Amino acid sequence: MGWLLAFVLLSVLILFHEFGHFLLAKINGVEVEEFSLGFGPRLFSVVKGGTRYSLKLLFFGGACVMKGMVQDEEDADGDNDASASDEDNQVSEGIGRHDQRRHLTKGDGSFQSVSLGGRASIVVAGPLFNFILAFIGAIIVISLVGYDPSTVLYVDPESSAAEAGLQEGDLITGFNGHPIVIGRDMTAELMFHEPEAGKTIEMKISRDGQSQVISFTPDTYELYRMGISYAVGDGVAEVLSVVEGSPIANAGITAGDIILEVNDEPIASGDALNAYFESHPLDGSELKMVYLHGNKERTAYLTPVMTPVTEIGFRYNLYREKTGSLATIKYSAYEVWYWIRTTVQSVGRLFSGQGSLDDLSGPVGVADLVEDTYEDAKPAGTGMVFLNLLNLLVFLSADLGVMNLLPIPGVDGGRLLFIIIEAVRRKPVDRKIQGTIELITVMLLLALMMLVLYNDILRLF
Questions:
Q1: Rounded to an integer, what distance in angstroms lies between the CA atom of residue 396 and that of residue 138?
Q2: Given 232, 252, 296, 314, which is the most exposed site by the fewest CB atoms within 10 A?
Q3: Confidence of residue 83 (pLDDT cuts 50, 70, 90)
Q4: Of 80-84, 162-166, 223-227, which one has max mean pLDDT?
């Protein structure tokens, strides 16, 4: 069931993306030759308003075929006498991109015949519609369950943060120069900009409606650690993150898994896991952990290691609370921005060498994530399944929009880059050069997709 839901979810994301291209193409007077649901041979089609609307055999995703968007070499040389065949030259570019046909005509109704601004709007419309879809989903989620205010829940009385004056109930509004709006901002901040020993932390807080600035140096000491962070509270002890190369990671436990037992003692919640470690401090002895990975129960053995630790000295809120109508719109917009920013930062880490290809997931990885989300939420009922999948749609739609805007030839961002270059040079990039660059890039992207697919399959087993 989870994989079927993943199939539907990804198809919705892609179709909405393609509908953005379709709508802006129509507005700009570009002929849309075909708008299809699925790929492969047609099962059913109807022509209306000059556009063929098709249902195809492979019921996954969709395509928007525009006249003259891709031109062949004869067009680059000024020969406009011929056009490519209907099906033989159709190119499937994968998730979030178009099926395209080659046309040599630059007359009215072709993609190349409209202004630079018109072409740019058509290209950008796909990712923009992904952001719109994410915003709609966020409004539904936040109107039902609310947002996660960045409130301080607990301050260690012996920490430097407590000495600096941080108190339970303070609302965090800034951390080391970065704005904090929701609790997950703090999680992202600590993940992408981990506090360093001896380096001062500057926090902006709001207390009783008054803004304050608190500065302190994080506490540093050595402890036996496993390399795990998990959800606290009366909900399940879900693993939020694991440190690469740590005992917990080497044991095979990953983010999203749920801890069920530690040394044969049942763990019913994050608070219960906290209580266990408080009564059984880590001392380097081997631990037996039973955990849930998706719907599979597994057992892992691991030994904590002595690790230098930098502690901020407080915990912050990640739970949601309802808010008013205007605030719902505000936080829905911010929810989309949060996922856009987080995706950009993740891509930045990858290109800077701080991340690895193992951090990437393709359709199989996404399908497995949807499956896990479905199985985790199913015991709580249909409503919880809907909310969790909708929350996942918000993230995936924003992520897809960002990835398609990357300035890489072969995706929307690459096409936009060529349009910008044409605007600066006041003449288009040579079609042969552009085609060669796109061909090489697409081949590299396909190789990357195969590697990501291989990693996704390895994770499944």
A1: 12
A2: 296
A3: very low
A4: 162-166
CATH class of 152-316: mainly beta
Q: Which pTM does this prediction carry? A: 0.76
Q: Are 76 and 431 in contact (CB under 8 A)?
A: yes
At 45, the amino acid letter reads S
Q: Residue 218: which residues within 8 A CB-CB, separation 6 or more?
A: 160, 195, 196, 197, 199, 201, 310, 311, 312, 313
- N residues, the chain: 461
Which residues, in sequence order, are CB contacts of 18 under 8 Å at separation 6+?
35, 61, 62, 63, 64, 98, 126
Position 111 pLDDT exceeds 80: yes
- The pLDDT confidence band at residue 37, using thresholds 50, 70 and 90, is confident
Structure-block tokens of residue 200:
């001062």
Q: How far apart are the first and last CA of the chain?
A: 19
DSSP letter at 243 equals -
**Which residue did the predictor score with more confidence, 280 or 354?**
280
Give the alpha-carbon dihedral of 193, 198, 203, 208, to 10 degrees. Answer: 140
Token pair belonging to 235: 């909900």
Q: What is the DSSP letter of 429?
A: P
Amino acid at 261: E
Say whether 430 sits in a helix, a strand or coil. Answer: coil
Residues 90 and 103: their CA atoms lie apart, in Å, by 11
Output 367 or 11, whichever has higher pLDDT.
11
Which residues, 6+ apart, have CB-to-CB distance to 243 below 8 Å? 227, 228, 249
DSSP 257-303: -EEEEETTEE--SHHHHHHHHHHS---S--EEEEEEETTEEEEEEE-
Task: State the pLDDT at residue 307.
Answer: 85
Distance between CA atoms of 184 and 238, rounded to whole angstroms?
15
**Burial of residue 177, with CB atoms counted within 10 A of its CB: 0-12 exposed, 13-18 middle, 19 or more buried:** exposed
Distance CA 271, CA 259 (A): 12
- Give the separation between CA 96 and CA 131, rounded to whole angstroms: 13
Quote the tokens at residue 415.
Answer: 């096409």
What radius of gyration do the chain's Cα atoms show? 26
Pull the structure tokens for residue 244.
Answer: 């690469």
In terms of DSSP H, where are the helices of 362-430? 363-377, 382-405, 412-425
Q: How far apart are CA 224 and CA 211, in angstroms?
A: 37
Question: How much of the chain, in percent, has pLDDT values that exceed 90?
Answer: 51
Dihedral sign for Cα atoms in the order 133, 139, 142, 144: negative
Q: How confident is the model at residue 166 (pLDDT cuts 50, 70, 90)?
A: very high
CB 153 within 8 A of CB 168: yes
